[in-house]
Write a structure and sequence with these properties.
14% strand; Aspartate Aminotransferase, domain 1; 2 domains; alpha/beta; 13 strands; Aspartate Aminotransferase, domain 2; globular
C-alpha cells in the first residue's frame, strides 16, 4: 500500500491494537497447555463454552472448528433432513449456502430489505414452500435481522429459526440478542470477526439441550461416548489454543464493540451528504459494526483512489451468492433479487476495528471527500 508523504496510512484491518495487551497472558497459558497436554476438548474449551453461552443468554455453547462447521452441524442438529428447504438471504457470505447444501438441504434464496440489508420478512414468506423447514436469517455486517418480523412466519408455517450470527457478536435489536433470538445460532470466530480467535474457530449456541448434545457428537466423529458412534460425524472440534485466546478476548468484546460504534458515528458525521455515497442503514437496536459498508456507483474507482492515499478498503461481497458458478444449479438469474444485487455492485467497506485512531478515521473521511470533490 502506497501513500503520499504526510498522509496517514490506514489499513483495512489492524488486529495489533487489540492483541498487544493480551499477548503475554495468552503466551503464558499456551506454555501451561504444552505442559498439561490437554490439547483437545480440555477444560479450557469448556470454560470458554460456558462463558460464551452466558454472554449470549443461552444454556449451551458448543465450540467447533469454524463458523461453517457451526452452521452445517447446527442445521443437522435442529433436524434438517435431506431435501428440506432452508430460506436464506441473497446478501450473505457463501458459507451460508455451503452449510445448507453440505447438510443435505436446499437453499431457497430471498431478497433483503433496504432498511437493514438483512432477510426481508415479506420476501421470505413468498419464498417459503411446502418443503421449507428452516428460516436462516443472517445478521449481516454486524446488524441483527428483524427477528420479530420473521417470528409470525416461523410460527404460522412451523419453521425453525436458525441465526447465522457469524458477523454479529454482541448485537441487539428490539430487546433480542444475537444468538438467543431463534432456536439456535452459529458464530464464526475467524480472526477478523468482532470476537476473533488466532485461527479458524466457531461456536453453536442454543438452549436446546438435545441439539447441543448432537453437535457435541457430530464435531467428534459422531461419538456420544468413547468409541460409541451414534451418528456419522466430522473432526470439527474447537482447538484448545483458540479457546484460550477467545477466553481472554471475550471480557473485552463489549468495549471493542463500543469502539466500533464510535468509529461508525465518526464516519456518519463526516460522510453524510458526500457525493453519491449511501451510508449504512441502521435498524432498530444496537449494531456492532463488524463492517462499515457504504455504497457508491463506482466502488472500484473509490477503492483505487483511497489505496493510492494509503487507505485500505474491502468488498463484501461483490458477487451475490445466487450468481456465483458454485450455485448456478439453483437456477436463479440476474434481476431475481434486486436489492441484494444492487448492494453487491455498489458496496465498499471502509476501515473499522478496535483501536483505530481518530487521525486514521479523519484520513478516511478526508480521502472519500477528496475523491468526490474531484
Amino acid at each position: 500500500m502506497q501513500k503520499t508523504a504526510g498522509q496517514t496510512a490506514v489499513p483495512f484491518l489492524d488486529l495489533g491494537p487489540a492483541h498487544a495487551p493480551l499477548k503475554e497472558a495468552v503466551l503464558e497459558e499456551i506454555a501451561e497447555l504444552l505442559d498439561s497436554g490437554a490439547f483437545t476438548n480440555g477444560p479450557a474449551v469448556a470454560r470458554f463454552e460456558d462463558a460464551f453461552a452466558a454472554y449470549c443468554g443461552v444454556d449451551h455453547c458448543v465450540g467447533v472448528a469454524s463458523g461453517l462447521d457451526a452452521l452445517r452441524l447446527g442445521l443437522l442438529a435442529i433436524g434438517l433432513e435431506p431435501g428440506d428447504e432452508v430460506v436464506v438471504p441473497a446478501a450473505t457470505f457463501v458459507a451460508t449456502l455451503e452449510a445448507v447444501t453440505q447438510a443435505g438441504g436446499v437453499p431457497v434464496v430471498a431478497d433483503v430489505s433496504e432498511s437493514d440489508y438483512c432477510l426481508d420478512a415479506a420476501a421470505a414468506a413468498a419464498a417459503a414452500g411446502s418443503r421449507t423447514r428452516v428460516l436462516m436469517p443472517v445478521h449481516l455486517y454486524g446488524q441483527m435481522a428483524d427477528m420479530r418480523a420473521l417470528a409470525p412466519l416461523a410460527e404460522q408455517r412451523g419453521l425453525a429459526v436458525f441465526e447465522d450470527a457469524c458477523q454479529a457478536h454482541g448485537a441487539q435489536r428490539d430487546g433480542l440478542r444475537a444468538g438467543s433470538a431463534g432456536e439456535a445460532a452459529a458464530f464464526s470466530f475467524y480472526p477478523g470477526k468482532n470476537l476473533g480467535a488466532a485461527g479458524d474457530a466457531g461456536g453453536f449456541v442454543t438452549s436446546d439441550g438435545d441439539a447441543a448434545s448432537r453437535v457435541r457428537a457430530l464435531r467428534e466423529h459422531g461419538q456420544t461416548a468413547k468409541y460409541v458412534h451414534a451418528h456419522e460425524g466430522w473432526t470439527a472440534r474447537l482447538d484448545t489454543i483458540q479457546a484460550l485466546v477467545l477466553s481472554h478476548k471475550l471480557p473485552l468484546l463489549d468495549g471493542w464493540n463500543d469502539e466500533r460504534r464510535v468509529a461508525a458515528a465518526f464516519y456518519e458525521d463526516g460522510l453524510d451528504g458526500v457525493g453519491d455515497l449511501r451510508l449504512p442503514p441502521v435498524g432498530a437496536g444496537s449494531p456492532v459494526w463488524h463492517l462499515y459498508v457504504v455504497r457508491t456507483a463506482d466502488p472500484a474507482a473509490l477503492a483505487l483512489f483511497l489505496r493510492e492515499r494509503g487507505i485500505g478498503t474491502g468488498r463484501h461481497y461483490p458477487e451475490p451468492v445466487h450468481l456465483t458458478d458454485a450455485y448456478a444449479h439453483l437456477g436463479y438469474r440476474r434481476g431475481d433479487f434486486p436489492v441484494a444485487e444492487a448492494l453487491s455492485s455498489e458496496c465498499l467497506s471502509l476501515p473499522i476495528f478496535p483501536g483505530i485512531a481518530e487521525a486514521q478515521l479523519a484520513a478516511v473521511v478526508d480521502g472519500v471527500r477528496s475523491y468526490f470533490d474531484g
